[in-house]
Task: structure prediction
Amino acid sequence: MGPHGQTTSLQRLLLVEKRIVRVVELAGSVMDELANSTGPRTDILTTHCREFMQSIKEIQTTLREEIKSACEYRPFEKCDYSARISNEICCKKLEYIIEQLDGMQQSIDQCKDGI
Result:
């Protein structure tokens, strides 16, 4: 658990990883039970299959929540950095254009003076 009793995203994903390992173990246990020379014990198969399905549902739910959370996470969305940079770029472009226009004006003035 993280601060304030909440689990972090990483902790939830680690729990999913442990559940996946458990699901694989359950699948192996079911295969062993099916291969039992005396025949499979229905109660054990039922218990393992029930736990398997419950774990799969929990894994899916947690992964959906984590994917949704990751898609909603936009750390720079409320930041004005991109707007400020865009503004600075526009200002530099305008300064360049003004320099070019001043240069053109000087050329025109020189041509008028030369005529």
Helices lie at 9-34, 42-72, 81-114. The radius of gyration is 33 Å. DSSP finds three helices and no strands in the chain. The chain has a mean pLDDT of 85.
